[in-house]
User: Fold this.
Amino acid sequence: MSITAKELAKRLGLSESAVSLALNDKPGVSSATRKRVFEAANQCGYDFARRGMVPAGKRGTVCFLIYRRSGAVVDDTPFFSMLIDGIQAGCRREHYDCVIRYLYEDDDLPGQLASLSPSRFSGVILLATEIDEAALKRFEDVKTPLVILDAYFEKLDFNYVLINNIRGAYMATDHLIRKRRAQPGYLRSAYWISNFEQRADGFYKAVRANGMSTANSPVVRLTPSQEGTYADMKQLLDNGEKPADCYFADNDLIAIGAMQAIREAGYRVPEDVAIVGFDDLPACEYMTPPLSTVMVPKLFMGETAATRVIQLIEGRAEQPLKIEVGTRLIRRKSV
Assistant:
C-alpha cells in the first residue's frame, strides 16, 4: 500500500502544505526541501498518478527524471533551471502536467525503473547529462514513452534531444585560433560526461583544421564547477605553471573559475590570456571582462523534449529520432 501525502509529511516533520507544494512542483518551498520530499516519496512508494498529480483537465503526466551520478555537473544552475522551464512550458501547451523526480546512481535502479510504469506516468524525459552507456542501457526495459535529454550514445536506440556539442566547440576554438594566432589550450573537466567528450572532439577538429598538432595543445583537468576550477587553477598558478595564450573551456563555470584565478595571478584577460566558455549562462555578461561563449538554446531544448515525448505518448511518432539543437558563438570581450 502506497504512502499518503499526510503520512509523508508526518514522516519528514513537514507541514502537509509544504509536501503538497513540493510534490506538485509549485513555488513556495526550497529546492532542498523539494529534493528531500521527492527522495522520501520515491523510497516510500508514493503513488504519483493516483494521488492528485494529474489535475483536472490535464491529458496526462510527464515525468522529468533527473539522473545524478556525481552531482558535479548536474546542479541547481541556470542551465538546468531553464531546461526545466522549457519542459514545463511544452507540457502546459499540450495540457500535460509535469512532475520532477531525482534518480541517484547508488539508488535501487531496478525499483526506480519499475516506478516509471505507464500506470503512473504518460511519458518520461530523462536528463542524462551524467549518465554513462551501461546505466542508460538499463532504461531499455522502460515501457513508458521515453526521451533522452542532453546525452547521446551511438549504440543505444532511443529518442534523443541534445546539443550539437561538436559544432559548438569547433566554432569556439576556431574563433580563438583566428583571433590569437596561437595554439589554444583546453580547460577540460576532470569528470567524464558524454557532452564533454563531444566538445573535446570539436576542439581537436578545429585545432587540426587550422594546421596545428593536437599534441601541442596543453590540457588542464579541472573540477567542473566555478569554485572547484578556481581552487584547482589557483594551485597550478601558485606552483609556477604558466598559462597558455588562450583556452577553450568545457563549460562556462570552468571558464569563469579559471578566469578568476588567472586574473588574481596578475594576468590580464584578454591581453595576456583569452578564454571562451560554453553554455552562455547569465553570469557571462557580468564578468570582467564579459565572457565569450557558445550559446545553447536551453528553453528550446526543454520544449523540444516535451514535444517529442508527447508525440510518442499520442502515437504520432514511430521511428526513434536524434534531434541535435544548434548553437551560436557569442563574441564578448574575453577574446
In short: The radius of gyration is 22 Å. The CA atoms of residues 11 and 184 lie 55 Å apart. Residues 49-54 have pLDDT under 50 and may be disordered. Residues 78-93 form the longest helix (16 residues).
